[in-house]
Structure formats: C-alpha cells, structure tokens
Amino acid sequence: MVPPNTFAGASLDRAGARRRDEAWVQARLRDPASRALAVTREGILVDRDGRTLTRLPLDAIPARGTTVLLGVETDGSALFGVDVEHVHDAARPLAPGARVLGLRAAGALLPQELGGLAAYVSALLGWHRTHPHCSRCGAITDVHEGGHVRRCPVCRAEHHPRTDPVVIMLVLDGERVLLGRQPSWPAGRYSALAGFVEAAESLEEAVAREVLEEAGVQVRDARYVSSQPWPFPSSLMLGFTARYAGGEAVVNDGELDDVRWFTRDQVRAAAAAERDGEDPWERGDANAELLLPPPVAIARRLLDGWLAGDA
Amino acid sequence: MVPPNTFAGASLDRAGARRRDEAWVQARLRDPASRALAVTREGILVDRDGRTLTRLPLDAIPARGTTVLLGVETDGSALFGVDVEHVHDAARPLAPGARVLGLRAAGALLPQELGGLAAYVSALLGWHRTHPHCSRCGAITDVHEGGHVRRCPVCRAEHHPRTDPVVIMLVLDGERVLLGRQPSWPAGRYSALAGFVEAAESLEEAVAREVLEEAGVQVRDARYVSSQPWPFPSSLMLGFTARYAGGEAVVNDGELDDVRWFTRDQVRAAAAAERDGEDPWERGDANAELLLPPPVAIARRLLDGWLAGDA
Lengths: 311, 311
Prior knowledge:
- The first copy, chain A, has two domains: 18-130, Alpha-Beta Complex (Nucleoside Triphosphate Pyrophosphohydrolase); 164-307, Nucleoside Triphosphate Pyrophosphohydrolase (Alpha-Beta Complex).
- Helices cover 22% and strands 28% of the residues of chain A.
- The first copy, chain A, is built from six helices and 15 strands.
- At the A-B interface, helix 3, helix 4 and strand 13 of A face helix 3, helix 4 and strand 13 of B.
C-alpha cells in the first residue's frame, strides 16, 4: 500500500460558489474568527515545532500583501492566505516562535492535509505574484472572487490561476525500469522521465512523446496511476506507467544527462540503503549506484508501487 | 470498443528539441517544401470537400499573422500554423475552393489525425492571441522556439502555452448515472458533470469537489478513463468514472439548471433515437426525455463506454 501523494489532501471546503459573493468575502475578512496562512517567496510560516502551519488572525498581519480566500474550515471559520513577503522579518516574527519553512520541506515534514494546504496557498499566491498584468492588454488587473479570478478593468479579460499538467512515467520492461537524470541533480540520483503536456495532446500522447524525445524509446499501454499537485510553481504531476515497445535508450534531446535501465532488485536495494530521515534529494553520493527520489515526489510513489507489485 | 477521443491524434513529430534552434526554425520558414495550416477566429481552412485541412505554401499567405511551428511531417517537411484573421477573405480565399470550418465541426467531420492537428494549431494560435503581453510586467513579449515560448524583453519572464486541466466524470450507482445540464444547452440535453482543476488539487480531489459543489453528492473510487484536448480555448478534459457514495442529487451551486439520475436503459434509448449525421449539440427537442452529448465530446465516449460495460 503506497501512501497518498504529498501536497494532495487540502481537504477544506473551498467555497467555490460563495466566494463569488463579494460581500460575503468582505464579511469573512472582517470576521475575527477568520484566520490566515502566511507565505513568503521562501516558504510558509510554521509554528515552533515545525509540524503545524501558523494560523494568524488577519489583524495580526500588518500591511497585508495579496490576500486570497482558501475556503471554510470544519468549524465554519474562513481560512485566508496572505503574501507577507514585504513585512516578514525573521528577527521579529508575526507570531512567537514562528518561522518560514521551505515548501519542499513542508511537504516532507507536515501531516498530509497541512502539506496540501501549504501547496494550495503557495500555488495560489505564486500565481498572483507572476500575473499582476493582463496578458491580453498589459493593464494591471483587479482581484476578484477571493483571489481565484483576476479581471482586467481595461479590456475586461478574465484570468484564472494556472495549473500546468505534467506527465511523469515509469517505462517498464518486465523486471527493469527506465530512469533518467538531470544534469543539476546530485551524483547518482535518477528519477522517472517527465515533461509538460503540450497544446492539444491527450495525456497518453504526451507520455509517448516525452519518452521518445528524452530517451529515444517507444512505449505502449500508458496507464494512469495517480496525480500530485507540485507547486513549483504550478504543476500538476500526472503519474503513469507505460510498457517498453522498442528503441535503444539514449539521451536524446539534451534535457537529460543520462537515461538508464535499472532492475527491480537495484531499485529495491537503493530504497533499502536509505538511512532514516535523510532526504536523498539534497545529498549526492558519487559512489552510489542509484539514489532514488524522496517520498515527497510522485516518482518515488510510482517506484514504490512498482516494488510492491502494483504495476 | 469506444473510438478514440476527438481532437487527440495530432501525431506529427513536434520537434521539441530542434525548435529551440532559432536558425533551424528560420530555415524551415524559407524552405519551399514547408506548408502551413491557416486559422481564423472562426475556425480552420479546409479544402472544398471539407475532409482535408488546406496545406498552403508559406509564400501563398500575404501579411502573415502569428506563425508557429507545429512540427515535422513524415516526409520531412515542416508544418506551420498561421493566424490569417486579418487577411482572410471568404470571397477571395487563400486557395481555390478553400473555406473556413468551425473547430467543433472540424472535429466531427475530419479524420482523427486531422481533427488533432486542427485542435493543436487552434489551441496554440489562440494562446498567442490572448497572451501578447507579459503577465508579470505588462510589456509586449517576443515569440521564440517556433511559437512555443514567449519571452519578455523587459523583465525576462518566460511564458508557455496554457493548458487548463478539467475533470469530467460519470457518477455511477449500479444501473444509473448522474448527469447535469447547463442553462444554455438545448432543451433535453444532459451531459457529464465537469469543472476546472483548482490550484494544488489532485485529479481525484477535483472530481469529488466538483460533484459535491454542482450536485450535492459524495463519490468514491474516482477512476481515470481517458483524456481529450478540448481547444475552446485550451482545456484538457480528464475523463473519470466515480461511484456514488451518498447525498441527494440537487442543483447546488447555481452553475447547472438541473442534475438528474438516468438509467442505463434511458441512456441506451437516447443513443438509439439519434438520427444518423445529426448533431444533437445544436438541436433541442422539448419532447425528448434525454438528448446525449455528441460523439465529439468525451462525455459521450464515457457514456458509450458505460453502455458497452467498460465501467
């Protein structure tokens, strides 16, 4: 049984209909029961123990940056997200003991649902940060619907948060799996091939194209496994397995450093060799035959599923 | 056996690596063997018979609008897409007998692969039409990589074509399926529930949220079936089935006119009642109990799969 993907699990009520009511959103902003998560470019505000997201009263945040409505919690109170980039001061934190935790670390350390919330607020505020202007006419747009829409006051265009679908796939051939490595990764690390879905592709077409482009290999029987929000800044990872159907695996388009077949035994040994609590993402090992991606990545969940015999 | 989804199937080599070579792209633009598909806001240029996309030499198009590289065809020649909005004149067509066919009709009438090409070129040129400006700083951006990237000369931001993932799902409960209708649809028509994936949601979470928001119903066991490019303007439909798990089906968030359970027999009868060649999308029938979405829509493929016993 492979655990759920990190960064999924933000299970609060997103209040999709109610947030279109501007008066209701404004009332939530004035409601003393409302709380907010605070985000900077470097990460998200967590409590001293590093295991809880810091929920601040809105009036505890001076000079709020972009403020978005995340939804309504089970106790009925509203939860907002606030960009505190310009007021955050590590020496004088917004709450006693609170500190900023990087988003990837947040995914690894926080309980499932809080990791999901961290991804949600980071993705939404990240979109506002990079989309203040209208892509159609260049004007500054206005925030509506609790931050889920930006509207252009000049050309009236409506803009929605961006979610970029990415296919990520294990190419399987009996007892072996095709993995690749990017030049920037620590020595020894390999992971699943992946790439952005292009205009007017089905997911299955994107899987086949990416594998051919990156590794020169044909595949068949692309099969969806699971999906994962990946807010760096706004990807949605769509995990697949596919069967090897021909071609010799070689680095093809210059995006990868190496592509290589590994046996199930090699992958199992690499998983067993990891020391508890260590994040192989950060660590290189020139002597290691294979370092796996960390559990925070869907690639690792796909590999764990393969080891468990799911694929 | 349900046929593949319309608008998938653009199987040409997209030349993802080579298009990053500006000199290579420029040489393809000068190559007399290169051809182009021509697109307006209303649709795509097709030959007299309406069954073939018109492939024009590039120099047959005066004052070309945005020009994008679609890829390389099997004979080695490059295929471009050109926005001819400003030079298209129905009375003096760019090629003898050529006419503009709406994209939805193109999907219904053209062979699978040409429907895929029509979707691809329309999605890509549609993105350029609505994204000339930098969303970060508002400046006019430059076209690079054969039209697959726009770069800002002022703030250096890089912008990629947008693909918006949408979940679309049949909620199943034994012999019945939950469908909904939008107020703008012809009388009697119902289709699968659907909605945009939001920031930091897994597909399965989006399925559950949308069904609850739109119809007040809980689901479990969301299962991916297939995907479909839906270039109106840039959606990627992700088709699911899900099992009914509780709640009474009622219109919930004001987006739908009605939600209703239909039996498998009712759906089968509705499919049988269609007259050949008729597009139920365009036609209302106040007396009909149920009009199904047309085969061009993945919703119909999902329903056909359910009738065939796939789900």
